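pls ignore typos typing on phone
NAP + seq
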Amino acid sequence: MDGKKAAQAIKDELRIEVAQLVAEGKKIPHLAAVLVGTNGASETYVAAKVKACEEVGFKSTLVRFEEDISEVRLLDKINDLNSDPDIDGILVQLPLPKNISDENIINAIDPEKDVDGFHPVNTGKMLQGLPCFIPATPYGIMLLLKHYKIDTAGKHAVVVGRSNIVGRPMSVLLSSNTNPGNCTVTVCHSKTTDIKNFCLQADIIVAALGKPEFITADMVKEGAIVIDVGITRMEDSSRKSGFKLKGDVAYDTVALKCSWITPVPGGVGPMTIAALMKNTFESCMEKN
Ligand code: NAP
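k done
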């Protein structure tokens, strides 16, 4: 599954819709991205999100803070963004420095501007199948399955990882009475014994644990669908950047066995950004 192409198709649609808003003299979407410190991966992710805003015609504001900013100052900024009527979406790039609680910051974001879908109000609504912002990575994966018209109903999905931002919401969405969805879901985590046994029973595997090449060909059933969420930077002196990206799936050998697979990079990553753009657009449409 080519996440880059599918994401481009979503962004192309959004660009047309934004042009329409401009033509009608309506408000255009505005995303505020908050970046604390100079973590290389976070810098890259935020830059990609700002670039995507430019591509689709959204306004974006990048708010940068030094690593040593206090939690109180960051909360003040979140409050300012919450009360700014021009801002439709707020994303705070995680992880935050150790002296700041991710939870306190996420909980301070107005749920109606929480386009990352991490606020407990949105999480609760998602659990009940109510309209809400769905976390961008699982939402992007659902959009990718939809793009490729993959029939998931009745399939056994194994999600490896149970984080609040990927694994857990993914398991909820795949088990929902939606299309895609309607899977029977097994969630595996670090305390699961014999993960291979569960993976071998899976029609769909979503690998979201952050362990490079954890899912190997002997763990995958013939014809399975494999979604690789993992992104780990591995040192590689032959590259200008000094690193290469590795997923949680041993792509070369697993690809020979499965019916669909997402590459890293170029799979779930671009879909996450496209989903974030969709959430920001929806937030703006609520105001319009
Ligand atoms: P996380 O918060 O560290 O959660 C990892 C999960 O994997 C935890 O539930 C953990 O279990 C489980 N786990 C760890 N080691 C395991 C093992 N050996 N066997 C089975 N389960 C294991 O990570 P995350 O934020 O969900 O991210 C996961 C990966 O996705 C990372 O590589 C991250 O960079 C990547 N990611 C990619 C995107 C994208 O856009 N492509 C977006 C977000 C994240 P416990 O709960 O028991 O600790």
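Residues 3-23 form the longest helix (21 residues). The mean pLDDT is 97. more later
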